[in-house]
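Hey, can you fold this one?
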Amino acid sequence: MKHKLITLVFPLVGLLTILVIASLTLGQPSRAQGISVRGQLSPQANVGTAFTYQGRIIFNGAPVNNEICSVQPTLWDAQTGGTQLASSSQTIVNPSNGFFKMDIDFGSNAFTGAERWLQLKVACVSDPNAAQGTVLPRIRLAPTPYALSLVPGAYVQDDSASPGTAFSATSGQTWNLPLFIATKIAGIWGDSRFNDGVIGTSQQGNGVYGYSETGKAVYADGDAHVDGNLTWKAKTSHVSVSPAAFIPNRPPITHLNLGYTLKNGSGSSAWWSAPVQLPHGAVVTSFEACWQDGNTDDARASLVRRPLTDLNESLANLASVNSHGYPNTVISGCDSNTSILTAVIDNDNYAYYIDVSLPPHTANEPMEFYGVSIDYQITEPY
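Sure. Predicted structure:
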């Protein structure tokens, strides 16, 4: 009579089950949502990648008892056919009333969230087919419910009854965090006393992506280091130049400069110049001059670019504005120009300054200059 070897498997086992057991052993909360493992694990206490498997061997309708058997596990990606993904060491077991327990280790890359099937080849001493062993039908490895939140691509959410940190992990020795940090609530919390609390890497996308409707997408309470280029969405900023910075182009010119106002006291129009520091790579969007004008002649302010190395290249007037007052009609205000020639600032090859031409200031025809404001957009530090 031909003997048949069968195995009855208890639905006890799975790699992820061990993770939950380890969490319970360490006294940590076992929740499908809001998982927290903090301050209890260390590299010396790593649980490894092996998991426990339990089954029962029945031979000729009776459980095998106190008999040497060998069990060879392999891992597959399908119930039949498919590809073998990994194997574990052959294990010698001695069943008691048919029951046996063994550790299976398929390594760290075997479980990625896709379905996996366990195949066993069993051989016992009393089995006539012991030399070849009996390959049993494959068994689907199913995760335990709580461990589903740890598979790749899983969605982890905090407990809605008591909102808090959704996932946190600590590496290395515990240490006392500042109170205002320790009480923070976060989507992901990474804590390390000596190493990196959180690391994000990506070959083509974003290593770390942050978004916030009302707070900070990324917040650093301390020094921040970027090994690469730091950029951001274009932000508008401003620089102003007061009359105090302006000096006559061809002194001596009779004038009155009180820092906040500049008046031409000579008998004819005259020029003043002042340097302006704009960030390299910034894009100038507006040039504006402010004055009080009741003069027959207009005042004029210009943003000028001068080459630093190519002296054969002429000066470039990037933007100009004129005043628009009249005798007996004094107008106080600002005039602006948003049509900027060569708006991108290139401090490697050019220097920038402002020229102002003012007609004479008199009691009947006043002309006062109050300064210049430049708007620009910037997308990176300078």
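The CA atoms of residues 186 and 214 lie 14 Å apart. Let me know if you want another pass with a different chain boundary.
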